[in-house]
Design goal:
By secondary structure, this protein is α/β, with parallel strands linked by helices. It is built from five helices and eight strands, in the order ββββββααβαβαα. The protein has one domain: Rossmann fold. The strands form three sheets. The protein has a three-stranded antiparallel β-sheet with strand order 1-4-5, with no helix packed on it. A three-stranded parallel β-sheet has the order 7-6-8, sandwiched between helices.
Length: 157
């Protein structure tokens, strides 16, 4: 049996698409297992291609949601959906008697330009009360060299 890489591999293969502008998501209805040497998680997406429950369902609270936007860390890479930071904060709020709608529109590889595009595409329809943006400084500020950047640097030498 072949051992997946430490960072993980999607089974079946990752299926993504460009939704609008530079907003990429999973393919709607995508279901997969993300396996690595350290974890094995389930990925299921809604009709917009986000790892989130179906939005705009009948009977949902009518109050404006708290919107979470970020990269793979906020998406919950390596953890089950209910273990993501957005779900954990919603659970804490419920335990304190606050019923607050929470929506997570995060995706693998997103950076600040993608967060902005996501906001411009979804803020009007979602009308969030608050927006929580997750930034992993290692990606955003260059502490971690991304594979594409590394390839470009190698070509220059």
């Amino acid at each position: 049996m072949q051992v997946p890489p430490r960072s993980g591999r999607f089974y079946p293969r990752l299926k993504a698409r460009v939704l609008r502008d530079d907003v990429s998501t999973f393919v709607p209805g995508y279901q997969a297992t993300l396996k690595s040497q350290d974890f094995c998680t389930t990925i299921k997406t809604n009709s917009l291609g986000f790892r989130e429950r179906e939005l705009f369902e009948a009977g949902e609270p009518s109050q404006p949601p708290v919107l979470f936007i970020g990269d793979c860390i906020f998406m919950g890479y390596g953890v089950e959906e209910q273990e993501r930071v957005s779900n954990q904060l919603a659970d804490i709020a419920r335990a304190r008697g606050v019923s607050q709608a929470v929506i997570n529109l995060s995706f693998i590889g997103w950076r600040t330009n993608n967060y902005y595009s996501c906001l411009t595409n979804f803020c009007e329809s979602l009308k969030p009360q608050s927006i929580v943006i997750g930034i992993y400084a290692g990606f955003e500020f260059g502490a971690v060299v991304r594979p594409a950047r590394a390839r470009e640097q190698l070509k220059k030498t």
